[in-house]
Fold this protein.
Amino acid sequence: MTTVRLLLAVLLAAPPLAATLSTPRAVTAGAPWQATLTVHRGAKPFTGAAPALTFRNGLTRRTVTAARTARKGTYSARVTLPFTGTWKAEARAGGKRITLRSVSVGAAAPVPSILPTADAFPICGGERDFLPQYATALDGDSVWVACRRSAEFGRVEAATGGLRALLPAGSQPPQSIAAGGGAIWSVSRGPWLTRLDTATGQVTTIGLGGESSYVWFAAGYVWAADDTRSRLIRIDPATRHTVAEMQVGDGTAAFVSDGTHAWALNHRDATLDRIDLATSAVTRLGRLPGEAPERMALFAGSLWITGRGTDLLRVDPATGAVQATVEIGAGGVDVAAAGGRIWVAAANAGDDRSGLPVLEHLYAVDPATTTIAETLAPTGRLVVDGVATDGTTLWIADVVGGRLYRLRRG
């Protein structure tokens, strides 16, 4: 017992682990840099397992394992911090957490815009094998982006275009996202709906019963398209329970609502359905022209519809009748209303046939005359992975090129 007590006394008397973090003079958002960590216990260098470095800013966390250097007790790590601000730092060594000095991260140089009159901001990029759709959503003063490749949700400050958070999306990398009810909702061609609590960063999953590629938030509910059963699922965001399932057309790919009714556009059979929100009753309005109409906006008392092999159609929301057709070339990629105009992204013939959402022209259509009032052409390759609008500003997310474009009108 005497020996054990003596050993405990020695351990208790041992000085605690201490560490010092060295960084470059300037650390820039999104740029890698070399961190040097020196760990010691009193005068002796720490020679245990390689420490882990963790950096935190709000709900965003980045952790790297440091590697030993030739000098005992000294470790190095390559670190990239994705956005500006002050990042709290800590090391975990010898089973202990050691608080380090904070790291101040400065802004990167502005990125050039390849879309005339639009601002461009860096976001997650590099997507190659899979092209997310509805990859952006507005939530108050924030723009959210689906970062599928890193399985994260990115939050951008709408006023400045600055990235402010990157939050884990759980086990389901996001494809389609929607914002509402204090959460970001996402699906990923599977039977699960993911919910991110925007206040806490907590992620939960909800079973859908069938594979879903699209999700929307409208009229106070979450709506998910069940591709396997051609059903539209209505979910209460508070209880996260399904309150109704509606039989709709094949391949629901767009959904809008005016608070009394909702409309579902089904791209495989080119049909349009109207839903009574009070009863969840579905009325088939008919079949639309075009190869695969799959995007829709509600503005100026009309539905504006486009898609692959489909011009811009102005459709009566009560009857489904086509009121006007605007020639936009091979077909449309997406459509939204901003600044009193209808903005439709159009692809070239080759990309339209392949189903690739690559922008050739961005047209602004005057709803009063149903004619093109403005045409913008990108100066490089711009992939339209999603659009969002607050009525005056149009946002276009390109998670292939890693850019978020902001176009202000009105």
User: Anything to note?
Assistant: The longest strand covers residues 203-218.
